């Protein structure tokens, strides 16, 4: 399969992994992904822009149009939905502890805020994070999505079926994260690297069906950006901090736990079944973008 990839995709992948290697060097040396997260997340985007300039001498065709906007609610709400499902089950079964007071205390201390009502503070904190906080989350997610869904998914879809496009883009996306998981701190504490890697890969490849479908259906980059930003915000910044740990908790929550890996499978199936709605007469054989997808 890889031998049939066109030169444009190979150039994009080479640039992506070359740029990412620079930031991974410093991430691995420091042991922490957080200091260099912005540079790493923007490596696919910069690689896509350079690739587009090499092959087209412009940056059109990456899905810059904000229309149609009817897919934005799906993109925003999907991570909220599967996050509530996974973490709700965790809290109800005792696999993890619903701990809003602990989250409020930690968030207030980090921001050096004195609060008389942890409940009011936490409510306002979550509301602000889920609205204004989405702007900063989109700014980091945009770097990845210009690459993965702006360029890679449409280029794969010109040559492969929707199923192959989703799986191949998801596999590349997952592989790109591996150095941070294996050699730095982008993982769940207390979970073996092998277990976390498998769960993370299943989650990424499963949700890649949603990302690919939204990109091809809307012919726009922005639903994927919002989906990525919403996932990062709700899972990493809200649901996980709301969860107090038991000895089982690391194995079921977060991006390296079993919960999101399992819920990603029905998400993949849902969007796979909707592949017939994509702009192609025979979406299972040779999907392609319509002319307006080049906007």
Mean pLDDT: 92
Largest sheet: 2 strands, antiparallel
Counting helices, strands and paired strands, the structural category is: mainly alpha
Overall helicity: 55-70%
Unreliable parts: 281-295
Q: How many structurally independent domains?
A: 1
Q: How would you describe this protein?
A:
- The protein is mainly α and 295 residues long.
- The chain has one domain.
- It has helices spanning 7-30, 37-56, 72-93, 100-110, 118-130, 133-157, 162-183, 193-218, 222-239, 258-273, and strands at residues 96-98, 243-245.
- Helix 1 (7-30) packs antiparallel against helix 6 (133-157) and helix 1 runs parallel beside helix 7 (162-183).
- The relative contact order is 0.16.
List the helices and strands and how they pair.
Blueprint: H1 7-30, H2 37-56, H3 72-93, E1 96-98, H4 100-110, H5 118-130, H6 133-157, H7 162-183, H8 193-218, H9 222-239, E2 243-245, H10 258-273
Helix pairs in contact: 1-2, 1-6, 1-7, 2-6, 3-9, 3-10, 4-5, 6-7, 6-8, 6-9, 7-8, 8-9, 8-10
């Amino acid at each position: 399969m890889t031998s049939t990839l066109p030169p444009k995709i190979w150039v994009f992948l080479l640039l992506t992994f070359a740029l990412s290697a620079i930031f991974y060097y410093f991430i691995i040396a420091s042991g922490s992904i957080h200091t260099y997260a912005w540079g790493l997340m923007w490596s696919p985007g910069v690689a896509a822009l350079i690739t587009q300039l090499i092959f087209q001498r412009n940056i059109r065709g990456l899905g810059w149009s904000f229309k149609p906007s009817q897919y934005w609610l799906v993109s925003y709400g999907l991570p909220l939905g599967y996050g509530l499902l996974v973490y709700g089950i965790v809290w109800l079964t005792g696999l993890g502890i619903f701990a809003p007071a602990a989250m409020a205390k930690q968030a207030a201390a980090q921001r050096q805020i004195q609060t008389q009502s942890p409940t009011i503070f936490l409510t306002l904190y979550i509301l602000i994070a889920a609205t204004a906080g989405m702007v900063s989350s989109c700014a980091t997610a945009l770097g990845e999505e210009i690459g993965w869904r702006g360029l890679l998914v449409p280029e794969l879809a010109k040559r492969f079926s929707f199923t192959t496009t989703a799986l191949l883009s998801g596999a590349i996306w997952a592989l790109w994260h591996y150095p941070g998981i294996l050699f730095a701190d982008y993982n769940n504490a207390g979970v073996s690297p092998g277990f976390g890697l498998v769960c993370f890969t299943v989650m990424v490849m499963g949700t890649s069906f949603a990302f690919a479908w939204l990109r091809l259906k809307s012919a726009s980059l922005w639903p994927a950006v919002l989906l990525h930003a919403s996932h990062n915000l709700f899972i990493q910044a809200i649901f996980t901090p709301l969860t107090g740990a038991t000895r089982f908790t690391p194995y079921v929550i977060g991006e390296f736990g079993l919960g999101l890996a399992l819920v990603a499978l029905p998400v993949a199936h849902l969007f796979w079944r909707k592949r017939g709605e994509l702009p192609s007469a025979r979406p299972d054989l040779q999907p392609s973008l319509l002319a307006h997808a080049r906007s």
